[in-house]
Amino acid sequence: MTSEVKSKEPWALFKTFVALLLILLCAWAAQWQYHRGVDRHARNAVIEHRISKSAIDLTQLKSPFADYEWQTISTSGTFDNNKQILLRNRYNEGKYGYEVLTLFTSEDNKKFWVDRGWVEAGATATTPPDVAPMPTSTVSITGRLRLDSSLPRGSFFALPGKGQGLVSELNAQSQLNTEKFYIDLLSGSESSLTPAVTAQLPELSDGPHMAYALQWIFFGGLVIYGRILIRRSR
Asked: Rounded CA gap, 79 and 56, in Å?
């Protein structure tokens, strides 16, 4: 009788409950990573498909604009050098700088921001970077359509048209009445319109999500194996 009592595993039900809970958590994490991988693969496929398409005119766009994001579009109009924004914390080849957004008005009177690419920061925090002004005449531009929701939230430093010092902070999405999209500039009718460093595409890899999903399944298997070992050790 004494031997029979000693052979029983203390807290057996509690240990089994904890093991089941851990297995469920591992299964949930594996599923979450799997779906993240599927979503990222689908996003990459959409981007690759749209950037491979031929350029279309801005006037051909129809709502919803999300159906055209990343597609190359062309349009004509004028830049407003007095409406210019520097997006902070942008890096290129390890160098700190800004992305330059300048307001553009198309010939059919659509106002939107054009991302002119990256520029290196000034020598000091109070020194504005060297930003070349855009032509004041009517020009044609070609670029990738981006949704306005892709712009970073919050306030950005803005520069006056002549680039003379930093002025008050300006929120690109609330202070001006612009379209719900912006353009990553690629080229234009004048050579000065082509950015030295264009806005970068996102990394088009599926990432480690599928590997993480398998890892969580493996962890769940370890929990089952460990529970069996504890049971047998009694």
From this structure: 20
Structure tokens at 230: 């504890």
Contacts of 185 (CB under 8 A, 6+ apart): 114, 115, 116, 117, 141, 142, 143, 193, 194, 195, 198, 199
Q: Which two tokens stand for residue 20?
A: 């089941």
Q: Are 114 and 183 in contact (CB under 8 A)?
A: yes
- Residues 146 and 184 sit within 8 Å (Cβ to Cβ): yes
What global pTM score does this model have?
0.73
Q: Is the separation of the CB atoms in 57 and 73 below 8 Å?
A: yes
Other CB atoms within 10 A of residue 110 CB: 16
What pLDDT digit, counting tens, does each position of 130-185 carry? Answer: 888 899 899 999 999 998 776 655 555 555 444 444 434 444 444 667 888 899 99
Say how far apart CA 110 and CA 145 lie, in whole Å. 14
Phi and psi dihedrals of 183, rounded to 5?
A: -125, 130
Instruction: Report the relative pairing of strands 56-57 and 72-92 from DSSP bridges.
Output: parallel
pLDDT in tens, 91-130: 888 888 888 989 999 999 999 999 999 999 888 777 778 8
